């Protein structure tokens, strides 16, 4: 099996699987389609948190504790802006700042986000292709019991505390996948599409809300395998399960699989969830889904690929 692989990913959780995939595959044959619904303008800078988390993770630069930003970071800029009475709720490290300055400068010069991301990936020595889901703006907004909030206002400033009643992916209907995204999803040599263990509502939802991407998955001719972000009713990272409950959904791996019905062929779950009742059209594959070590990431990546390869070989019924 040597064909290229596409993975849909959000930030921290998804990036871990992306790193595992990049180590069990030829990195040049891996394409990451990254969520940009979290992107925003902050202190005048264009921030693309999930793209940056994926780039830093693949470049070996990510801070292992936080899962975002750079390791060995210094915070002189934040200290100085705090001293001036500026905004400090969203923390930009000194070295990280350089990336936002450079992205903002290139965007202002008219370059599309996909071209800028490819440039940054090259400069950081990242092997896989990292593509924003679209060059058009899509912004995730949360309808909460405190009113409508922009994603980072909800996620960082308000620490996911307001109860979520509704989610909108503003701009998604009109957003086109970039040419590179369409080429990756339509590559006749494609081996598999993998949906990473990212929040289905906040990270994968915006990607699948882009009509061209959803259609590419719905009309797929290659196996699509999703990896569960929930183990035994607990989110691996972040507010996935609390948000599902707030929206009146069961907080379970089964519910995540159900939300992908029609788009995926197989679902990788932790062995503790393998006895649950999943939609009949989805093949369930058990593999340890908690990624603490690099070996865990490689093993989960291999399990997702094996699930896809097994489907490609299975006789059609
Ligand atoms: N997350 C936080 O919880 N607090 C921060 O101050 C913060 C700053 C930040 C700066 C750059 C960047 O690329 C990511 C950053 N993140 C921060 C992470 C980010 O808000 C979220 O993890 C994602 O948007 C969700 O995937």
Detailed description of the structure:
- Helix 1 links the parallel strand 1 and strand 2.
- The two termini are 23 Å apart.
- The protein is globular.
- The chain contains 12 helices and 14 strands.
- It has helices at 12-24, 49-58, 76-83, 94-108, 113-123, 151-157, 179-185, 200-208, 211-218, 240-246, 253-259, 294-313; strands at residues 5-9, 30-34, 40-42, 45-47, 129-132, 139-144, 147-150, 164-170, 192-195, 224-227, 230-231, 234-235, 266-269, 283-286.
- The strands form 4 sheets. Strands 5-2-1-9-10-13-14 form a 7-stranded parallel β-sheet, with helices on both faces. Strands 7-6-8 form a 3-stranded antiparallel β-sheet. A two-stranded antiparallel ribbon has the order 3-4.
- The chain is of the alpha/beta class and 317 residues long.
- The chain binds ligand FO1.
- Ligand FO1 is lined by residues 10-12, 38, 47, 49-50, 52-53, 68-69, 90-92, 96, 152, 155-156.
**What is bound: which ligands?**
ligand FO1
Question: Strands across the major sheet, in which order?
Answer: 5-2-1-9-10-13-14
Helix and strand pattern: EHEEEHHHHEEEHEHEHHEEEHHEEH
Assess the beta-strand content as a share of residues. Answer: 15-25%
- What's the β-strand tally? 14
Mean pLDDT: 95
> Main sheet, how many strands, which sense, barrel?
7 strands, parallel
Distance between the termini: 23 Å
* Low-confidence spans: none
Q: What is the molecular shape?
A: globular
Return Rg in Å.
Answer: 19 Å
Percent range of helical residues? 25-40%
DSSP summary: helix tally:
12
- The class by helix and strand makeup works out as alpha/beta
